[in-house]
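Exercise (ungraded).
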Amino acid sequence: MTSERNTDIEIRLLIEAIYLKYSYDFRDYSGASIKRRILHAVRQFDCRTVSALQERVLHDPGMFLELLQYLTIPVSEMFRDPGHFLALRNEVVPLLRTWPSLKLWIAGCSTGEEVYSMAILLREEGLLERTILYATDINPHSLERAKQGIYSMQSMREYEENYRKAGGRRDFSEYYTAAYGNAIMDSSLRDNVTFADHSLATDSVFSETQLVSCRNVLIYFNKDLQDRALGLFHESLCHRGFLVLGSKESVDFSAYSEGFEPLVRPERIYRKT
Amino acid sequence: MNGVSAIVIGASAGGVTALFSVLGALPADFAIPVLCLLHLPDDRHSQLAEVLQRRLRRPVREALDKARIEPGLIYVAGPGYHLSVERDFSFSLSQEAPVHFSRPAIDFLFESAADAYGPGLLGVLLTGANEDGARGLLRIRQSGGRTVVQDPRDAQVALMPEAALALHDPDHILSLGGIGQLLATLEPSAC
């Protein structure tokens, strides 16, 4: 019991130290998951306690960058929840067409799978050329990997199935070049993509957009931080802009439940009211 | 004996039948929230709440992200996401890597619920062909909560209860019938 209580205190101190020193704000993340990830890092870095990890992180920025890889969760796949992308294609794309030029924001883009999925969908619908995509994340390593667009062939074979179910119109292999067990994404897909460091916890809105996609990010935030992020999306979106979330996320219990209305509720596609 | 604030139940192979048996023994006015996590293939998972609700004729909800845990309700973990309990007695979902090939993982639910409820928690581990839940149950005990393991001889698949028994001596080792009876007599905690 005592050691558990100590651990909880140490975790709070570590998160505070990270905020004070590196301005990364995990203070309003959901507690259970961040605790697991910190304790996992403690074991991986062979530290005796969370306090020992804190000392290393505080005095070594390189160490913080390594810890950041544990604190963020790079779980992603292309065309994850195919039904979601099918609904985007059928219900949202026809409305996006009515704008002469488009700006889309993929918030919490992690290693880029959502970005390439969206870019492929837009290209097939003839919209990619008139679109600017902002892909943001707090993890510089993830952003770097997103820019490179290199994924294992094994995962690409899984994504191919998703792509087909999501209404894909081509042969999925047209979008990448296979080499040494990896797939290198067609670089023209990211011609109009701007990758940028941005925190939903501490930064503000940077552009007006027609669509914000933020999938499986809000689940890691507590209610206050969810509201902050939804506030940013609401502010960024133009009149009648679209917000798309992960399959277990919704605006229903947030401060913005009135600010968005469901367009395709089961696929978590909302529209600014 | 102090009252119980919440019950967590974990099960894997053979778990649907076992859950029907245990939950079916609860009286209609049972006030303690029950949080169930059953390993199932993703497609079957999603219907579990409906199936249980129809069969038990009482409200059963899928545990949703940030939803507050209400007394008198039975919750089930949905597919594809880990389920945790936060300190403010609400649920949270996450997508960390699977544990023991499972997402949701019983260990994550049990450990986080132990942190949230401490001595007010009662943990039950039922049939299964997997070691998930054994560590979580130990953690419930270490946080002062009570632990129940299905008698391996009574379990459809004994591996999961046996793995739990290898880690600690629970407060009770019971058949499904015995577990149902025990739960039915529990008093909710005052808070």
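Further reading is listed at the end of the chapter. For now, observe: Chain B touches chain A through 25 residues (CB under 8 Å). Chain B has a mean pLDDT of 94.
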